[in-house]
């Protein structure tokens, strides 16, 4: 992850925290930003000594992002859908690689799943 951007590290840590919350059945209100921030701080305090370079990069000041948000797309075939604390969708992409996604927001047609 040494070549990863600050944003990529934040996304990876966020997804890791979601999986920890789910697998350990930790009671955290995902809609409560303050509760999630505190949980993230606890995780960070335990992880920082193990990977200081990553956390140094996270602490770097960055210029405010004034650009429009970017969106990424992925195409593939739905391989599985797991309903747990969150909805996990596994796709087989065009390169035959499995991609696991966390379904966070309602989308049109979601009720069919």
How is this structure best described in words?
The chain is an alpha+beta fold and 113 residues long. It has two domains: 6-59, no CATH class; 76-112, no CATH class. Helices cover 36% and strands 19% of the residues. The protein is built from three helices and three strands, in the order H-H-H-E-E-E. It has helices at residues 6-23, 33-47, 52-59, and strands spanning 76-83, 87-93, 98-103. It is globular. The N and C termini lie far apart (34 Å).
How is this fold's topology laid out?
Elements: H1 6-23, H2 33-47, H3 52-59, E1 76-83, E2 87-93, E3 98-103
Antiparallel strand pairs: 1-2, 2-3
In brief, what are we looking at here?
This protein has 2 domains: 54 residues, no CATH class; 37 residues, no CATH class. The protein has 3 helices and 3 strands, in the order αααβββ.
């Amino acid at each position: 992850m040494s070549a990863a951007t600050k944003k990529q590290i934040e996304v990876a840590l966020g997804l890791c925290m979601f999986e920890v919350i789910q697998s350990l059945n930790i009671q955290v209100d995902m809609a409560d930003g303050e509760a999630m921030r505190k949980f993230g701080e606890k995780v960070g305090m335990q992880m920082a000594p193990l990977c200081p370079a990553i956390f140094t990069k996270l602490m770097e000041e960055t210029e405010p992002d004034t650009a429009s948000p970017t969106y990424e797309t992925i195409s593939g075939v739905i391989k599985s859908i797991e309903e747990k604390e969150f909805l996990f969708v596994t796709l087989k992409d065009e390169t035959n690689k499995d991609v696991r996604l966390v379904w966070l927001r309602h989308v049109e047609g979601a009720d069919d799943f």
